[in-house]
Amino acid sequence: MAIALGPVHHFSLAVTDPQSSAAWWRSLFDLEEYRSAPRRVLLGNDAIVIAFVQGTPDPAALTHMAFRTRDMTTLEAARDVLRDKGVALEDPGDEIGAVAEGSKSMGLWFRDPDGYRWELYAQAPTDE
Fold first, then answer.
1. Residues 48 and 102 in one domain
2. Which domain CATH number covers 127?
3. Are residues 34 and 67 in the same domain?
4. What are the tens digits of pLDDT across the range 56-78?
5. FRET pair for 118, CA 20 to 30 Å: which of 4, 27, 68, 107?
6. How does pLDDT run across 74-88, given as a tens digit for each residue?
């Protein structure tokens, strides 16, 4: 029997400065600080918990992670917030594009201060 996986609940990232990383994420996303210590900060909401742990960042170990938005309107609003906050989006001027060749789902990509690559996307009704 195969194990059924559900949505991701939490994950940890090695970052240079947990306090700084947490502040960056909170400035952009609707996340609450659950716990804070000098070497570890937990942020989250009803959907996800992220632990920022002091260490050596390794963006090559996590090539990217995607978060789904509700719809294209939400994705476009997220793009505008990221732009307004000075976050460098990939493909300047044409930031939102297909998540893969032939896909109707649309996404945008950016990196955090430690170099990890993130995706926000809106799933097309016909893409699974």
1. no
2. 3.10.180.10
3. no
4. 999 999 999 999 999 999 999 99
5. 4
6. 999 999 999 999 999
* Containing structural domain, residue 122: 58-128
Diameter over CA atoms, the chain: 48
E strands in the chain: 10-15, 32-37, 40-44, 49-54, 65-69, 97-98, 106-111, 117-122
pTM, 2 dp: 0.89
Edge-to-edge strand list for the sheet holding 106-111 = 65-69, 117-122, 106-111, 97-98
Name every residue whose Cβ is closer than 8 Å to that of residue 57 and which is 6 or more positions away in sequence: 13, 14, 15, 16, 114, 115, 116
